Amino acid sequence: MQTALFIGRFQPLHLGHITILQRLAKKYKILIAIGSSQEARTPQNPFTFRERARMLRAACTLLGIKARIIALPDYPDDEHWLDHLMTYQFDIAFSGNKRTIQLLRERGCSVHQIKEVGGISASHIRKLMSEGRPWQRYVHYSTARMIENIGMKNRL
Fold first, then answer.
1. Within a 13 Å sphere around the CA of 128, how many CA atoms are in the beta-carbon half?
2. pLDDT at residue 43, rounded to an integer
3. Residue 154: its pLDDT value, please?
4. 12 Cβ partners below 8 Å, 6+ apart?
5. pLDDT tens digits, residue range 66-108?
6. CB of 30 closer than 8 Å to CB of 69
7. What structural domains does the chain harbor?
8. How far is CA 47 from the centre of its chain?
9. How many angstroms separate the CA atoms of 100 and 28, rounded?
10. Beta-bridge mates of residue 30
11. Model's pTM, two decimal places?
12. What residues in the chain have per-residue pLDDT under 50?
């Protein structure tokens, strides 16, 4: 079975991500790369790598999705970032980031562009959180519980 690389920041993991993972799980082994893994506790990246990995593991376990999760930190330049990413074995990559897609294609990788699923975006979810508005319907219930336990008010 081929391995699919799914790259995202997962800030937070949401139902659009889950839908993509469910689709990928039908055809591939899954390697999830948590991008900007060193970033945390900022308005754009409120969750730590460990928190994002826990969200992914919990949802995948509950949904019967087997996946390997790796950290993908940012580098000062694209070449080092790509060199790091290419140390992992995968057959096809999935990303919604145009620059990531371009870089991977330049390296000869097979890449599929992910479109936003159901109009759900992590940016919108973070905005709702920062405004104190309901956001829970956009994430898996296990993710909502984790986020509520973390206490987001001090991060956004």
1. 15
2. 87
3. 66
4. 46, 47, 52, 55, 122, 125, 126, 139, 143, 147
5. 999 999 999 999 999 999 999 999 999 999 999 999 999 999 9
6. no
7. 3-149 (3.40.50.620)
8. 11
9. 20
10. 4, 67
11. 0.94
12. none
pLDDT of residue 118: 83
Give the span between the Cα atoms of 154 and 156, in whole angstroms.
6
Return the pLDDT at 66.
96
Structure tokens at 52: 């994002």
Count of CA atoms in the C-beta half-sphere (13 A) of 90? 27
Output the 3-class SS for the chain: CCEEEEEECCCCCCHHHHHHHHHHHCCCEEEEEEECCCCCCCCCCCCCHHHHHHHHHHHHHHHCCCEEEEEECCCCCHHHHHHHHCCCCCCEEEECCHHHHHHHHHCCCCEEECCCCCCCCHHHHHHHHHCCCCCHHHCCHHHHHHHHHHCHHHCC
Amino acid at 115: K
Alpha-carbon span 93 to 3, nearest angstrom: 9
Beta strands across the sheet bearing 3-8: 67-72, 29-35, 3-8, 92-95, 111-113
What is the distance in angstroms between the CA of the first residue and the CA of the last residue of the chain?
41
Residue indicated by tokens 């001090």: 154
Distance, in Å, from the CA atom of 43 to the CA atom of 79, rounded to the nearest integer, reads 27
